[in-house]
Amino acid sequence: MSLAIVHSRAQVGVEAPAVTVEAHLANGLPSLALVGLPETAVKESKDRVRSAILNSGFDFPPRRITLNLAPADLPKDGGRFDLAIALGVLAASGQVPADALDGVECLGELALSGSLRPVQGVLPAALAARAAGRALVVPRANAEEACLASGLRVLAIEHLLELAAHFSGQTPLAPYQAQGLLRRLRPYPDLADVQGQHAAKRALLVAAAGAHNLLFSGPPGTGKTLLASRLPGLLPPLDEGEALEVAAIHSVASHAPLDAWPQRPFRQPHHSASGPALVGGGSRPKPGEITLAHRGVLFLDELPEFDRKVLEVLREPLESGEIVIARAHDKVRFPARFQLVAAMNPCPCGYLGDPSGRCRCTPDQIQRYRAKLSGPLLDRIDLHLRVAREATALQVEPLAGSNSAEGAAQVAAARQRQLGRQGRANAFLDLEGLRRHCALNDTDRHWLENACERLGLSLRAAHRVLKVARTLADLEACERIARSHLAEALQYRPSGQT
Question: For 208-227, what is each residue's pLDDT tens digit?
Answer without folding.
Answer: 999 999 999 999 988 899 99
